[in-house]
Amino acid sequence: MKKRLLLILCFLMGIYVSSQECPRLTFPADGSIGVPVDATITWPVVDGIIGYLISLGTTPGGTEILNQRSAGLTNSYTPEVGLPENTQIFVTISLFIADQPLKVCPVESFWTEDVTVPPLCTTLDSPADGETVVNASSDITWNYAPKATGYRISIGTSQDSFDIIENFDVGNVLIFNPTGDLPIDTDIYVKIIPYNENGEPTSCPLEMFTTGVEDTSCQAFFDPDVGELVFPRPMLKFPDRVSICINQSSTLIDTPDEADGFRWYRIHPDGSETLISDRAEVSLSNVGRYRYEAFNIVSQAAGDVECSETKQFLVVASERPVISEILIDRIDGRKQITIQTTGQGSYEYALNDPSGPYQLSPVFSNLPDGENKVFVRDINGCGRAERNVPKELSADDFPRFFTPNGDGINDYWQFVPSPDNVQTRPDYIHVFDRYGVFLAQIMPNTKGWDGTFNGQPLPSNNYWFVAMVSDNQKIQGYFVLKR
Which NCBIfam families match (predicted)? Predict the structure, then answer.
């Protein structure tokens, strides 16, 4: 009874998984024309998944506009800087399903509108207009201006002079990082002008924020008690790039840094930030840009001071490798293999031992004799693959005899690969008699030789063969024709 219930449960789960069908775009519908360049792309909710990926391109399956951006469990996406005008946009939605490969859905497309007017003005997002005590090293971000294809920014210390930067074209982005820090304790004036091929707005507003006073309490100082410099701020070792594993609901990232406290922020496409953790580790489930902050609490006469260091890092997707092929070559008579893999990740390779040592190169030279196995693992811990190296053929791998008597059994002589070595097979085989007379050429994927020459059956005897394999290996041997 328990076995029957288990079978029923597996059957129902199979129905449930197979029911996670690919969604069709609800807006814009497939084939739509005149779609606004600032449109929000939407699709129906798919139950039982752990997330969506969306890619946008100008060719079927293309990703030059957006490359597998995670949408989490939100069934919509609004391009941060809009879409190119008068262009066919191809959309690919992919589904994260727990413990299954990424499900890539069929491509759909639509045409965007032909923009014929200039964009409207934009406004500062961060620092906000009128904000005070702004960090002098802050980035400047602004809101998307619909129909804009680029922005020019001017920054100055007075309303009448853009003495820091003037009319600088940043392209189609919503963030600008000034070269060097801004002046401290100063009013900073900013004007941002969107543009497109039709022109620009005529009178965009001048906005202003004020930077704060430099804090010297966190500067390094010489401690005579220990006889060396003391750095109140943490020394960061956290990398610029980390990976999360596809088909896992989240990946836990730990910091290697020592500090009194930590903060992790997700940076949204518009430049805004959301605090996602205040511990030494963070659970990440979306690719994109993040900011990491570590701080120490330093006691001063006026009270405790927080001394912090911060950096941005990029989160990318990774997955378990798949070994697609093992190429075999001979270099100066020595065997060399090249491992070919597929998958979205960074991989390293080992020979014969799953614990390594691992190397970044997929090439192994001077391969030892006998059976060999390769191991490929994702360097971010997203999984490992293994595969036997196809062994070299020998004369013993070829049939020792055949009986072409028309009974339908063993009537043809042909190489048949073994089940554990299906990759290796000859490119062709030549058959000769005992005097070296060429009798037949046998190609792969044919029945083989039927024991005739010029249409006439040959007598029972020993016959010789020469087989050529793609790695320049030549195999010679003999077999018996029995009648």
Answer: Bac_Flav_CTERM
Residue 208 identity: M
In a domain, 33, yes or no: no
CA 246-250-253 angle, to 5 degrees, is: 105
Task: Give the length of the chain.
Answer: 483
Please check whether residue 255 lies inside any domain of the structure.
yes
433-462 as b/e: b if 16+ CB within 10 A: beeeeebbebeeeeebbebeeeeeebeeee
- In this structure, the answer to whether residues 454 and 418 fall within a common structural domain is yes
> Which of 273, 299, 317 represents a domain boundary (last residue)?
317
- Going residue by residue through the chain, which has 483 residues, state the pLDDT in tens, using 9 for 90 and above: 444 444 444 444 443 444 578 999 999 999 999 999 999 999 999 998 878 889 999 999 888 898 877 777 889 999 989 999 999 999 999 988 876 777 899 999 999 999 999 999 999 998 999 999 898 888 899 999 999 999 999 999 999 899 999 999 999 999 998 888 899 899 999 999 999 999 999 899 999 999 987 666 787 776 777 777 778 889 999 998 888 887 677 888 999 999 999 999 998 876 778 999 999 999 998 888 899 999 999 877 667 788 889 999 988 888 889 898 888 777 776 778 899 998 878 899 999 999 989 999 999 998 877 788 999 999 878 889 999 887 777 788 899 999 998 888 999 999 988 765 555 678 899 999 988 999 999 998 899 999 999 989 999 999 999 998 866 678 899 999 998
Candidates 114, 115, 95, 117; CA nearest to 104 is 95
For position 134, which CATH number holds? 2.60.40.10
Overall number of domains in the chain = 5
Residue 34 resides in a domain: no
Taking alpha carbons only, the member of 62, 54, 70 closest to residue 88 is: 62
How far, CA to CA in Å, does 217 sit from each of 138, 292, 296, 297? 19, 22, 12, 11
| 238 in the same domain as 303 | yes
Residue with tokens 């290697």: 256
Note whether 412 and 455 are same-domain residues.
yes
262-289: string of b/e by CB count within 10 Å (b at 16+)? bbbbbbebbbeeeeebeebebebbbbeb
Tell me which residue range forms the domain holding 339. Answer: 322-389
pTM to 2 decimals? 0.54
Residues 430 and 460 reside in one and the same domain: yes
Which pair of structure tokens corresponds to residue 221? Answer: 């100082």
